[in-house]
TrEMBL record:
<dbReference type="GO" id="GO:0016887">
    <property type="term" value="F:ATP hydrolysis activity"/>
</dbReference>
<comment type="similarity">
    <text>Belongs to the ABC transporter superfamily.</text>
</comment>
<dbReference type="GO" id="GO:0140359">
    <property type="term" value="F:ABC-type transporter activity"/>
</dbReference>
<dbReference type="GO" id="GO:0016020">
    <property type="term" value="C:membrane"/>
</dbReference>
<feature type="domain" description="ABC transporter">
    <location>
        <begin position="28"/>
        <end position="242"/>
    </location>
</feature>
<keyword id="KW-0813">Transport</keyword>
<protein>
    <submittedName>
        <fullName>ABC transporter ATP-binding protein</fullName>
    </submittedName>
</protein>
<dbReference type="Pfam" id="PF00005">
    <property type="entry name" value="ABC_tran"/>
</dbReference>
<dbReference type="InterPro" id="IPR003439">
    <property type="entry name" value="ABC_transporter-like_ATP-bd"/>
</dbReference>
<dbReference type="InterPro" id="IPR027417">
    <property type="entry name" value="P-loop_NTPase"/>
</dbReference>
<dbReference type="GO" id="GO:0005524">
    <property type="term" value="F:ATP binding"/>
</dbReference>
<dbReference type="InterPro" id="IPR003593">
    <property type="entry name" value="AAA+_ATPase"/>
</dbReference>
<keyword id="KW-0067">ATP-binding</keyword>
<dbReference type="InterPro" id="IPR050683">
    <property type="entry name" value="Bact_Polysacc_Export_ATP-bd"/>
</dbReference>
<dbReference type="InterPro" id="IPR015860">
    <property type="entry name" value="ABC_transpr_TagH-like"/>
</dbReference>
<keyword id="KW-0547">Nucleotide-binding</keyword>
Length: 242
């Protein structure tokens, strides 16, 4: 059964700094998220998170800048390796985190789509049908047959969005900026996004936008300083429009 389970999950980023010695001296007295180690300084981005997300839940990760939302999303996506704790994701994961993640920059948009379809076990015929459908939606014109490394960031979002929303995964991980295309594109994207979100069994979205939380989510996990400070139903965590 699709679910996510984390226990004592910790992520650290080592920082090498030309002035690490003086920084270390100042940190020795500190007790925050920066730790001085032998030859480096370490940022504790996530500090011992424990939670379980069940099938049917749509979870918003909220919190101030630097709270750890993106880091948690990326850890769930398998991009970062925890330094401690346990993480289990049961179900197929799809992520809308980096537009062009998993694409070969040297291949064209169309080639990347077909490749993704084949990777997901489609026949060649099904993969090229998928490509036609995505090409129509992405509306990239002749750019679809040029290497994706030449795309503008907006074009990358269109292609990444169209591709990622073509096949609903069990677990959908999303960064809010994916909901910020140009107005014309977003009007067309709305229906597709709704289909994707309702078709997935679990949604986890990192966002600052409480309208998004109220519209899409059933549960809120609030992070601060790399730790969970609140976790519960949307109505309980954001009772008064906050
Ligand atoms: N690649 C990295 N290298 C070093 N430190 C990082 C890296 N990514 C994140 N951090 C640090 O980890 C902490 C959590 O950052 P994260 O990006 O997860 O926060 P966030 O809640 O998504 O913030 P925002 O709302 O600003 O996007 C911050 O202190 C940040 O400086």
């Amino acid at each position: 059964m699709t679910h996510i389970e984390a226990e004592g999950l910790a992520i650290e980023f080592p920082l090498y700094h030309h002035n690490a010695r003086s920084l270390k001296k100042r940190l020795l007295a500190g007790h925050g998220r920066l730790k001085a180690e032998d030859s480096r300084v370490v940022v504790a981005a996530l500090r011992g998170l424990s939670f379980r997300i069940e099938r049917g839940e749509r979870v918003a990760l909220i919190g101030p800048n630097g709270a750890g939302k993106s880091t948690l999303l990326r850890t769930l996506a398998g991009i970062y390796e925890p330094v401690a704790g346990r993480l289990i994701l049961e179900g197929e994961v799809g992520s809308l985190i980096d537009a062009l993640a998993g694409m070969d920059p040297l291949l064209t948009g169309r080639e990347n789509i077909v490749l993704r379809g084949l990777y997901r076990g489609m026949t060649e015929m099904a993969a090229s049908r998928l490509a036609t459908e995505i090409v129509d939606f992405a509306g990239l014109g002749e750019f679809i047959d040029l290497p994706v490394r030449g795309y503008s960031s907006g074009m990358g979002v269109r292609l990444g969005f169209a591709l990622a929303t073509a096949m609903a995964p069990d677990i959908l991980l999303m960064d809010e900026w994916f909901l910020a295309g140009d107005a014309d594109f977003m009007a067309r994207a709305e229906e597709r996004l709704t289909r994707l979100v309702t078709g997935s069994e679990i949604l986890v979205i990192a966002t600052h936008d409480m309208t998004i939380v109220r519209k899409w989510c059933t549960r809120v996990i609030r992070l601060e300083g790399g730790a969970i400070v609140a976790d519960g139903p949307v109505a309980k965590i954001l009772p008064d429009g906050g």
